From TrEMBL, chain A:
The lineage of its organism: Bacteria, Pseudomonadati, Pseudomonadota, Betaproteobacteria, Rhodocyclales. This is Iron-sulfur cluster-binding protein. One of its GO terms (biological process) is lactate metabolic process. The keyword Acetylation does not apply. It holds the Pfam family Fer4_8. The keyword Iron applies. Keywords: 4Fe-4S, Electron transport, Iron, Iron-sulfur, Metal-binding, Repeat, Transport.
UniProtKB/TrEMBL annotation, chain B:
Gene3D superfamilies: NagB/RpiA/CoA transferase-like. SUPFAM superfamilies: NagB/RpiA/CoA transferase-like. Pfam families: LUD_dom. Residues 44-221 form the LUD domain. This is LUD domain-containing protein. InterPro entries: FTHF_cligase-like_sf (IPR024185), LUD_dom (IPR003741), NagB/RpiA_transferase-like (IPR037171).
Length: 456, 225
């Protein structure tokens, strides 16, 4: 495990970071506005509740079927990819994954890597590893590019720069991009990004991307995107390295259409993304472009731990659409950065404990109202609220002995409630977060059993 | 023990019960009824136009004329075409008389990457087929029409035969036998394209022409035009 992962305690400071966002009306407005937009866009994509329900059930079946034979499928995927000329690497930890990627870069004496959007590369902190090795890693997704320029991290898995206003981005471009005048016209800002990044695509030595679905039978890596930077990253440079978690695998090609439909409709409310890019091999002898080398890095990083348990395994059904965060009342109020983890929001709360340990992430599962919205919108029916309850239970290792005893014994309960009602004047007026906005909790002067006795 | 062996050992150690195979064909059977070519073409057109593509109804005879009109209207003086294809040949013969330069993609990209990125305003490729439900073009780049041809030039013009439009993505791959060696083994790169490049990464404001083509033009060959 990397030093970073061992010492990283997102739980610490979670409260302080949340407070900061909650008290910032501009950030509140950014998130509320964007999440409402995405919620409404999604609704328009699912006009039939019945179709949505049967499609979600199908999505759940596809993911569970494939997870059910995950080890077999991984071996099959490796065989198919190798047959197609794609080199497969396995990594248990972020450090191992970084070492593999840097090794490939160094073999090619690479100086510049352009990156399509990849949350797994965020998970392993690839950009830091590249920097340390003297390789420039350049994000090319517009949102990721903005976040990288600002020296920040994504605050949403689909919309990385959603916490920024266009005025902030305008100032950022003006300060950080050479020869750019201040403009807060969104079209102009995008064209500035396009111009800068085109020159990078032209000269980059390595293209890095994530993977949305890996098809075991055909050895195909599928990528979903709107901008074209994913296609450029995987096509223009001479070497393409893809990285994915081991769970993103499906057995057959026809498992892809239902998942693709669920993914784009749930994520951004599009019936399909602008591009769906299916890569099944490097450039062939008679072809004129495409990378001459393609690599796939398969990353564990805690996924095998989730896999070991029937209930927790459901976490791995995730297709990373982000609908759970869009619909989460907590995420909408505190934004993505407060969580302190690569994956924020409801999915972050259930996946991060496997990556960083339960100790480091234990307050996260409590940052939920258990309203159930995340589970209701999940396109592959991950029971997120149940999993949050499970993690809450597990994170409190010392059982509340006295509490349990009182509730188990009728006579003890009788005595305890009698004491509570007689000495209710002893309850403190300051009861921590509860009394910051509420009146103190106090046992009633008469117990329920006393009231019932009076009635009789 | 390698990382591979350790990962596989951990997965194999988990108590996993096999799950029934998903019934995908059955779901799609009830999903959408069969439509005529004209109905599919209309649905395709409505969807891809909604995504900001331009669509022109043309015939086998008339498309080169429309191509010329589109290029002239957009003031394009140079077009990247595939001389090794019949449609490429037709485009070259029609356009060469009109003063529009046709450039073929004849060398490896390494030999002309600069020019491709800086000096090619538009390209013409054929689509292998399309999907009505989502307004999607299906392209399988090959030696004649390589991957970057539909990606780097700011204007991408696509020739599509209405008879090759399917209802759904599932229908395309099952009808054509994608991934089956004897029918349609997967190419190195298969693409679904559903409009010009776009992004909503700045304040969820939609902007076109992010990294790929800024404009997508479809010449839809049907019977009516």
């Amino acid at each position: 495990m990397s030093e970073h992962a061992m010492n990283f305690m997102p739980s610490e400071g979670f409260r302080a970071r949340s407070k900061e966002v909650v008290e910032n009306p501009f950030l509140r407005q950014s998130f509320r506005g964007a999440m409402d937009f995405l919620i409404n866009k999604r609704i328009t994509q699912f006009p039939s509740a019945e179709e949505l329900e049967t499609l979600r059930t199908l999505g759940e079946q596809i993911r569970q079927y494939n997870l059910g034979k995950l080890p077999t499928l991984l071996v099959q995927l490796e065989e198919s990819l190798t047959r197609n000329g794609i080199q497969v690497h396995w990594a248990e930890t972020p450090d191992e994954a970084n070492a593999i990627i840097l090794g490939i870069c160094q073999k090619h004496s690479a100086k510049l890597m352009v990156k399509g959007k990849s949350m797994v590369s965020e998970e392993i902190e690839l950009n830091h590893a590249c920097e340390a090795a003297g390789i420039e890693a350049m994000e090319s997704d517009m949102g990721e590019y903005i976040v990288q320029l600002a020296g920040e991290k994504p605050s949403h898995i689909i919309m990385p720069a959603i916490h920024k206003t266009k005025e902030e981005i305008a100032r950022l471009f003006h300060e950080k991009v050479e020869g750019v005048d201040y403009t807060d016209n969104v079209d102009e800002l995008i064209q500035i990004g396009r111009k800068v990044l085109r020159e990078k695509f032209l000269v980059a030595d390595i293209g890095l991307s994530g993977v949305n679905f890996a098809v075991a039978e055909t050895g195909t890596l599928c990528l979903v995107e709107n901008e074209g930077n994913g296609r450029l990253s995987t096509t223009a440079p001479p070497v393409h390295i893809a990285i994915t978690g081991i769970e993103k695998i499906v057995e057959k090609l026809d498992h892809v259409p239902p998942l693709l439909s669920l993914l784009t409709r749930s994520a951004t409310g599009q019936n399909i993304s602008t591009y769906f890019n299916m890569i099944s091999g490097p450039r062939k002898a008679d072809e004129k472009d495409g990378p001459t080398e393609v690599h796939l890095v398969l990353l564990d990083n805690g996924r095998t731990q989730a896999y070991a348990d029937e209930q927790l395994r459901k976490t791995l059904q995730c297709i990373r659409c982000g609908a759970c965060m869009n619909h989460c009342p907590v995420y909408t109020r505190i934004g993505g950065h407060a969580y302190g983890t690569t994956y924020p929001g409801p999915i972050g709360k259930i996946i991060s404990p496997h990556m960083l340990g339960l100790d480091a992430t234990k307050t996260m599962a409590t940052a939920s109202t258990l309203c159930g919205a995340c589970g209701e919108v999940c396109p592959v029916k991950i029971p997120i609220p149940d999993l949050l309850m499970r993690l809450r239970e597990e994170s409190f290792s010392e059982p509340h002995v006295a509490w349990a005893m009182v509730y188990r014994s009728p006579s003890l309960y009788k005595v305890a409630t009698w004491l509570g009602s007689r000495f209710n004047w002893l309850t403190p007026s300051n009861q921590g977060p509860w009394t910051s906005v509420r009146t103190p909790l106090k046992p009633a002067p008469k117990r329920l059993r006393d009231l019932l006795k009076e009635r009789a | 023990m390698s990382a591979r062996d350790r990962i596989l050992a951990k997965l194999n150690a988990a108590p996993v019960l096999p799950k029934a195979a998903p019934e995908i064909a059955a779901w799609y059977q009830t999903h959408r009824g069969t439509e005529s070519t004209a109905e599919k073409a209309a649905r395709f057109r409505a969807c891809i136009e909604f995504a900001h593509a331009e669509v022109y109804a043309v015939s086998h005879a008339s498309w080169p004329q429309k191509l010329w009109e589109v290029l002239t209207a957009k003031k394009v003086e140079k077009l990247l075409v595939a001389p090794g294809t019949t449609h490429g040949q037709r485009a070259i013969s029609v356009l060469s008389e009109s003063g529009i330069t046709c450039r073929g993609y004849e060398q490896s990209i390494e030999d002309w990457k600069e020019e491709m990125f800086h000096d090619i305003p538009a390209s013409l490729t054929a689509a292998r087929g399309a999907i009505a439900e989502t307004g999607t073009l299906v392209l399988w780049p090959d030696a004649h029409e390589p991957r970057l041809m539909s990606l780097v030039p700011p204007i991408h013009i696509v020739l599509l035969d209405a008879n090759t439009i399917h209802n759904t993505f599932y229908e395309v791959m099952s009808n054509e036998g994608w991934g089956i060696e004897s029918q349609s083994a997967m190419p190195t790169n298969a693409l679904l394209i559903s409009g010009p490049s776009k992004t909503a990464d700045i304040q969820v404001t939609l902007a076109y022409g992010a990294h790929g083509p800024k404009e997508l033009v479809v010449l839809l060959i049907g019977e009516e035009a």
